[in-house]
């Protein structure tokens, strides 16, 4: 007995198959029947890409090749303040931005830790509001570049970034109307104008 080759019919089997085909009744109309060559090989499926091939190779702490340093961060405090709605009188706001309004008091937080700066800021703002002052200056400094090259970028100037958050939190948000970066004559991006609400 000859061994059958997989996928191929012998001459005898082909003859039997042809005789069977003559007796078969198609289930659909003939024009819709699609004949298929049983000996034809089905097309090979493209294997899916491995997970390793889809993940870009990187090293922990390496900077992204797609975006320059700094673009992976959220908008800076300066950008957020520049786009904040103006709640104070617009004419006064324009003068304040140009450095034409003189601050009535100032607080210098230069060199303080967060633990010391926070209570100092709260005391200064609340006492200024109680004294009826409207415009005060808070100096934070621009800060040192503390980015140590780790995987999470760190903004320059811890106090510079933290002070506006504190000013918008209780209990200070009830007395603070507007916060804006100071004009160059009063310290520029290393200081903030804080415009206080009128005492009632």
Automatic annotation (TrEMBL):
Domain of life of the organism encoding this protein: Bacteria
InterPro entries associated with the record: Smr_dom, Smr_dom_sf
Transmembrane segments: none
UniProt-recorded name of the protein: Smr/MutS family protein
């Amino acid at each position: 007995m000859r061994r059958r080759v997989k996928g191929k019919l012998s001459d005898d089997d082909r003859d039997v198959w042809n005789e069977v085909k003559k007796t078969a009744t198609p289930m659909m109309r003939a024009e819709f029947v699609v004949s298929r060559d049983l000996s034809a090989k089905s097309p090979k499926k493209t294997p899916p890409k491995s997970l390793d091939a889809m993940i870009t190779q990187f090293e922990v702490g390496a900077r992204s090749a797609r975006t320059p340093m700094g673009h992976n961060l959220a908008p800076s405090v300066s950008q957020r303040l520049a786009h904040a709605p103006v709640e104070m009188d617009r004419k006064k706001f324009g003068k304040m931005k140009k450095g034409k309004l003189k601050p009535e008091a100032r607080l210098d937080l230069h060199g303080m830790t967060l633990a010391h700066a926070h209570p100092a800021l709260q005391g200064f703002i609340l006492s200024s509001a109680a004294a009826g002052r409207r415009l005060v200056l808070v100096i934070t400094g621009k800060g040192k570049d503390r980015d140590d090259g780790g995987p999470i970028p760190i903004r320059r100037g811890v106090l510079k970034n933290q002070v506006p958050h504190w000013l918008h939190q209780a209990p200070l948000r009830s007395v603070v109307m507007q916060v804006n970066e100071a004009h160059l004559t009063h310290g520029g991006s290393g200081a903030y104008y804080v415009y206080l609400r009128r005492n009632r």
